[in-house]
Amino acid sequence: MVEDSGVRRRKALLVRDTLTSEEQAERFRAMRRKRQGELVMTQDFQSSLSFVLGAEGGFSNDPADRGGATNFGITQATYSAWLTAHGMADARVKEISEEYAEAIYLENYWNAGACQALPSPLNLIQFDSVVNHGLGGARPMLTSALAFPGATVEQEAFALLALRDNLYRRIVGRDPTQDKFLKGWLNRLDHLRKAAGL
Fold it and tell me: Distance from the CA of 12 to the CA of which of 24, 41, 152, 177 falls in 20 to 30 A?
């Protein structure tokens, strides 16, 4: 008899609830080793991740930040959803490990944003876009940046940076409370342009 997904999920939750946090971490590492073929960590991903982690910093919980509490740039909601999806107990994002942060960035941002299919340095800029704007915000900007036949990768990368610059300014235009973040957002774009060699 085949179990339905609801039964399998309830069993997974029962197992999860009986494991210590260290057992959960080891279970995650074993699952990750098993899935290594799917989660290919290319050099482009590693260098892109280094940029994002440097830009995002550590724990932050600014009341004006719409994302709420974040650590390594990962929100509490994203961390909680990822832990649940991997059969682990919820935990505070303030205590997220760098290993888990890397796995989330690989699965939820690099792979989900199809960054591995893009040439360098466009993949770095798209990855950072997905991190900052979510898939729903990043995809239309990438589509617009790629809309010019015959454009070079560098021209497409510049177009994506310009679209992001415009988006940040529109955000502040619609919601002046976000003005305190504009300088940091634009500085990030400038550092991103330099990291991309543009």
Answer: 41
